[in-house]
Specification:
Helix content is about 65%, strand content about 10%. Helix 14 (about 440-450) crosses helix 16. Helix 17 (about 505-520) links the parallel strand 9 and strand 10. The protein has two domains: about 1-310, ABC transporter transmembrane region fold (Up-down Bundle), CATH 1.20.1560; about 335-575, Rossmann fold. It has about 575 residues and is an alpha/beta fold. One of its GO terms (molecular function) is ABC-type oligopeptide transporter activity. It holds the Pfam family ABC_tran. It comes from Micromonospora costi.
Length: about 575
Amino acid sequence: MLIRLLRDHLRPYPKPLAAVVLLQFVGTMASLYLPSLNADIIDKGVARGDTDYIVRTGGWMLLVSLVQIVCSIAAVYLGARTAMGFGRDVRAAIFQHVNRFSAREVARFGAPSLITRNTNDVQQVQMLVLMSCTMLVAAPIMSVGGVVMALREDVGLSWLMLVCVPVLAAALASVIRRMVPGFRLMQTRIDTVNRVLREQITGIRVVRAFVREPYETRRFGVANADLTATALRVGRLLALIFPVVMLVLNVSSVAVLWFGAQRVDSGAIQIGALTAFLQYLMQILMAVMMATFMLMMVPRAAVCAERIGEVLDTDTSVVPPAAPAARVPTTRAELELRGVRFQYPGAAEPVLRDISFRVTPGTTTAVIGSTGAGKTTLLSLIPRLVDVTAGAVLVDGVDVRELAPDELWRRIGLVPQRPYLFTGTVASNLRYGNPDATDDELWAALEIAQAADFVAQMPEGLEAPIAQGGTNVSGGQRQRLAIARALVRKPEIYLFDDSFSALDLGTDARLRAALRPVTADAAVVIVAQRVSTIVDADQIIVLEDGGVVGVGRHGELLESCPTYAEIVASQQTAEVTA
């Protein structure tokens, strides 16, 4: 998966990658030439007392060093730009792919895990790309070139390379092999910490209302401790790498000096050549260490790439049609559910079964039922947040699965059960469905939604700031702003999912009265728990255990549907008691 991810998202960067390879090659070759020049200064300059030779060769060393520095800086710069571009592209790909997910796929992964995969996981793979640009190219050139240059200096000491290099590689490989499971577990632990933290921040009011801060602190502490323990296990293995490398480097240096001194004493090698051989051996071992360091990053990056690939390889269950049906040019839409059934994968029983009804333009259909009856799921089928498992949802006689998603959503104004406002202003939230709406249109929508008064009282008016999720306004204000947002869109189908629950009875009545002329040509579906909200509906659908147990107007259902009569009686009793 890692190779595929790198191949797919590094494809737009052939020239920067080629430049990095070339610069790393030139810079590494320059670094390999320096010990040889140093050996010449010692053996040919110092030994003979030739100052001119020392100066000339020293000048060449300065020039070669300058080339090495320039190439290294340029390679790191281009490598960093390539890695950052790669990370940007992968994050964009994940974001765009997740945007096509239905509610089912989002629930499968969970928001915290998707956030981790789009941030921390991408960062790990991005770091691998960066380190590859700076180390992966240089390491093999340095190791192979170092062997060749060392053999030029003295073949008699070459057996030291045959011993030191495999020992270092084997020691580091044994450490890295034990780190792979730890890296995989770390990413899972990060998911858990993000999930707990997100739940606590989102539900801070509930936590405080039930005085659960100590419990939540302990819960976060457990998740944090698990992540810390896993990170410490990996960290202890990481801590072994540097001592192992230093031990092999120091022992190798001692061995070269010990056995090299004997060869110098016998006249088989000169002091400068011995110094160069030692430097080349160190370069070879450093190249092995760099390669091993890369191998150390690969396991974690591979785990992260696997998690990223899992998201990118997951197809949405809401598939756009290959050949979308042509839109009928009309400002009025008819909605029909025909034998609709919905069942979650692996569930024993369907959530909805054999649901059929029609909503004509200019009429209001209400859906009511006990908690868990499937009301919200039913409403989610209309804009294709999830797809039916049997039957069909039709708009103007066309199955919604045959309509282009943008075309379908353009005709629908949805006010969800939990209205969500985005960070920005009142105006930016209202224009979410219609970016071209004028200020007059925004105020008109606010007036209908009974939100104009409190917006006008805000010092900035339409430019008043809205916090993420709308946490700086009350629940009722949030609902009214969400209703105004749907009104600004002027859709052909309105879907209200228990969108009046936070309103008092007076505001509820005024809002519904103001909505009637605006929705006179639209098909309206209202999911409600409160009977007073739907008493004037043209058609009321009563759901029980996922099935329709009653269809009709308020008066008809009181006589023909025991479930509806029971709901009405329970609410009237509650009002009297209150």
